[in-house]
Amino acid sequence: MTERYQLIVIGGGPAGLGAAIRARENGLSRILIVERDVELGGILNQCIHNGFGLHYFGEELTGPEYAGRVTDRLEGQGIDIVCDTMVLSIESGAEGHRLCLMSAKEGYRFLDTKALVLAMGCRERTRGAIGIPGTRVAGILTAGTAQRYVNMEGYMVGRRVIVLGSGDIGLIMARRMVLEGAEVLACVEIMPYSGGLARNLVQCLDDYGITLLLSHTITRIKGKSRVEGVTVQQVDASLKPIEGTEQDFDVDTVLLSVGLIPENELTRAAGITIDPRTGGPVVYENKETAVDGIFACGNVLHVHDLVDYVTEESEEAGKAAAMYVLGQEKEHPEKLEKEAIDVVAGPGIAYTIPQKIRPAGESEKTRIFFRVRQPYKSPKRLVLRDGEQIIASSRRPYMAPGEMEHLMVNQHMLEMIKGRTLVLSVED
Questions:
Q1: For residue 363, pLDDT beyond 80
Q2: Residues 12, 83: one domain?
Q3: What are phi and psi of 111, to 5 degrees?
Q4: Are residues 235 and 204 in the same domain?
Q5: Which whole-number Å values give the CA distances from 376 to 206, 349, 351, 428, in the listed order?
Q6: Domain termination site, one of 243, 258, 273
Q7: Predicted pLDDT at 414
Q8: Residue 287 burial by CB count (10 A; 0-12/13-18/19+): exposed, middle or buried?
Q9: How confident is the model at residue 205 (pLDDT cuts 50, 70, 90)?
Q10: Who wins on pLDDT, 407 or 416?
Q11: What is the structure's pLDDT at 2?
């Protein structure tokens, strides 16, 4: 290790690995990956099911296989790696960025870098965030925690299970618990539609005869030392429980799959602007944040449904970071906040990534990621407008909030822009 790097990547999951490798391929020689876990790979290490890699590798892999493929690319690259190490703070100045690191082995130390890639991933929303009434008993776990216990630690978390939320991790763990011999009584979702991928609904619930209760939620957890049962109620259009719809379930375990939150405590402390819609930093088309030389990618930027997109996005960030360090960026007077073009979520759109585009950017194409606010089961048109002028449009036969979408915009389209705001919306 050295005291000063060209690039430091925070996070050793698929996002961090992809960014570091692509930065190395684009000319950087002094790169460090900092990972807080004891090994690289991130959340993929506990995702032993298949379904990964179809887009990026062109074949179906398990999570550990995907992580292994990416980690193997580090061999011979000369990239420094430290695991079991936390980044405590980021300070930015004219010469770059200074990170404070802490580990049991090395203690506190400071490292300097010209550029920084944020790839810390995300965490699960817990019971405290949604406020379920009832006692604080054993047997209430987030789905990801249960996944780690079962798949990596070898512990069985329960025998009679109910899942609150229909995110992909919850759906996958419903199936996993059945395969381990448990009985999954139901998957309960407060929204009138599922938050997971359509394929997971079929493969994890339908194929195993697990009931999905839409527009329902858990309103009480019962038990003394361990969960003994829950009360489930139907909710109205404003998501309020409806009196007289109570159902009691005799369970010993509640798994929570009620959303993921990008890990951005470091980002906020570094003074980087956060988008309240995504929970991640505001970025330009090359994944650079409002602070020069700091880039973001993966689930720390916005929650992805496919790791393939995480890898592709992180490679864009890694290449951009390398160009920044080597001084190969084009001059961008319009990089200033007032001169960049804002990309705004219009009717039917929950958020967009990136939030800002510079028409004179390095990329010939800009991919705008987004999610819709509700399911669209009939064909709809995505329209990107500059006032009344249509910059890009695309017809989609089906869209759902649980499935991330993207719209490709070419450089010549951006050159047509006359205003300072682009609005992406769903139209008939």
A1: no
A2: yes
A3: -130, 145
A4: yes
A5: 21, 12, 16, 10
A6: 258
A7: 77
A8: buried
A9: very high
A10: 407
A11: 62
Separation between Cα atoms, residue 388 and residue 299, nearest integer Å: 33
Q: Look at strands 80-82 and 31-34 and give their pairing.
A: parallel
Q: Is 371 helix (H, G, I), strand (E, B) or coil?
A: strand
Q: Secondary structure of the chain: what % helix, strand, coil (to 5)?
A: 25, 35, 40
Q: 22 phi and psi, to 5 degrees? A: -65, -35
The answer to whether the peptide bond before residue 354 is cis (omega within 30 degrees of 0) is yes
- Look at strands 107-118 and 4-10 and give their pairing: parallel
For 148-169, the three-class secondary structure string (H helix, E strand, C coil) is HHHHHHCCCCCCEEEEECCCHH
Domains in the chain: how many in total? 3
Tokens 């509700």: give the residue: 374
- The 8-class DSSP code of residue 331 comes to P
In a domain, 334, yes or no: no
Residue in the block written with tokens 């011979």: 76
Q: What is the biggest distance separating any 2 CA atoms in the chain, rounded to whole angstroms?
A: 66
What domain range includes position 401?
A: 339-428
- pLDDT tens digits, residue range 79-120? 999 999 999 999 998 889 999 999 999 899 999 999 999 999
Looking at 290-362, list the stretches that DSSP marks H as alpha helix, in order from N- to C-terminal side: 307-325
Q: Could you count the other beta carbons within 10 Å of the beta carbon of residue 136? A: 9
Q: Are strands 107-118 and 122-124 parallel, antiparallel or unpaired?
A: unpaired
Tell me the pLDDT tens digit for each residue of 17-28: 999 999 999 999
CATH number for the domain that contains residue 73: 3.50.50.60
Instruction: Render pLDDT for 250-305 as a digit per residue (tens, 0 to 9).
Output: 999 999 999 999 999 999 999 999 999 999 999 999 999 999 999 999 999 999 99
Q: What's 421's domain CATH number? A: 2.60.40
Closest CA relative to residue 229, chosen from 131, 130, 134, 125: 134
Cα 216 from chain centroid? 25
Contact between 260 and 253 (Cβ < 8 Å): no
Q: How far is CA 115 from CA 19, 254, 314, in A?
A: 12, 43, 14
Q: What is the pLDDT of residues 303-324, one digit of tens each?
A: 999 999 999 999 999 999 999 9
Residues 53 and 156 in one domain: no
